[in-house]
Amino acid sequence: RLRKWQERIRTKDAGERNLQFALSEVDRMASALGVPRSVREVASVIYRRALDEDLIRGRSIEGVATACLYAACRKEGIPRSLEEIAEVSRVERKEIGRTYRYVSQELGLEMRPVDPKKYVPRFSSELDLSKEVQSKANEIIETTAEQGLLSGKSPTGYAAAAIYAASLLCNEKKTQREVADVAQVTEVTIRNRYQEQIEAMGIHT
Amino acid sequence: MSGPADSIEIQNVVASTGIGQELDLEALADDLPGADFNPDNFPGLVYRTQDPKAAALIFRSGKIVCTGAKSIDDVHEALGIIFDKLRELKIPVDDEPEITVQNIVSSADLGHNLNLNALAIGLGLEDVEYEPEQFPGLVYRMDEPKVVILLFGSGKIVITGGKRTDDAETAVEEIVERIDALGLLG
DNA sequence: ATATTACTTTGAAAAGC
DNA sequence: GCTTTAAAAAGTAATAT
């Protein structure tokens, strides 16, 4: 019917008008996170696809824009945790996560689970840890993940524990609290992952 | 042979029915000891049975949802108790209201640890939702039977969305086959 | 530092906003 | 979409001891 057609045009126009706002939000959040321009471009492409596929109905523009940025960071291999993303968004973590899963599923993004090693360089530099510690942390993650220890565990907590363990092994000790703060996880999580990883690595303390 | 299918345990059954009679929930809330009714929050009155343990949501239309029972027999038993309670209050209840099972939640154990990362890729990223940052389980939507399976690193699983008792059994056999075909079953 | 308690996910129905 | 009900899985978080 003509009316339905007109309505489609109307919503499409509205979507196009809001596109500018969405992209400016992606830009603002990306700047706050300090991610490269390539990530903003990928996020923009995903948002346009979501708009074309009519995935924005019933959700906030800000929520979809944030979810697209989260997905883009992961696609570009420089993941930000939902906590970090939520810090620069006005949408709460839970909603960002839900929207991301929806967009990811509907657009068939086929995102692979985040590799904890992707967090090692950034977290380590924030803690002023050497390259040796980073290599050791990567080794711990690689080895223990192969043993199946990673299943079901949060990538940030897993990376945090490996960094904590590596800092001890390399005599550049950081406290659990220091590592927990940069990774935005609790000390309890670091403790739990640390124990498992140390045991799986056959290290005694 | 004891296989994963033998480890299946029904954890919750959701069913709906109706007494074929409109109800005054305000009055019912006063007459039924232990009834919770907060129309501002939710239009249904909540009534819990002790044995078998279940919770019923009773609506003004006379339709009832029963949840929390551990078997289909328990659903019938719990609803039977509620029908009798209503009859005691002189509320006319159909002789044998039709009870429809809407969802069965079951748990099972595959008996082996699972590498969820490998499984997510092996089962096909398009059919899988695995976001350990948000939830430790891998969500797998199966078409036949039409159920959703939550798989955990321990090998324990949850099957939900099915309406028949044997849906869980069929689903477990199917998922075991698929995981085994990928060489990911211990 | 450990022990509770609570929240995350899946599915379905009900009436109404 | 949301509201309420129940239950399992296992990880994480907040709070208590």
Automatic annotation (TrEMBL), chain B:
Organism superkingdom: Archaea
Pfam families: TBP (PF00352)
Gene Ontology MF terms in the entry: DNA binding; DNA-binding transcription factor activity
Keyword tags: DNA-binding, Repeat, Transcription, Transcription regulation
UniProt key word DNA repair: no
Alphabetical list of InterPro entries matching this protein: TBP, TBP_archaea, TBP_CS, TBP_dom_sf
Alphabetized PANTHER family for the sequence: TATA-BOX BINDING PROTEIN
Record's function text: General factor that plays a role in the activation of archaeal genes transcribed by RNA polymerase. Binds specifically to the TATA box promoter element which lies close to the position of transcription initiation.
Family statement: Belongs to the TBP family.
Protein name: TATA-box-binding protein
Taxonomic classification: Archaea, Methanobacteriati, Methanobacteriota, Stenosarchaea group, Halobacteria
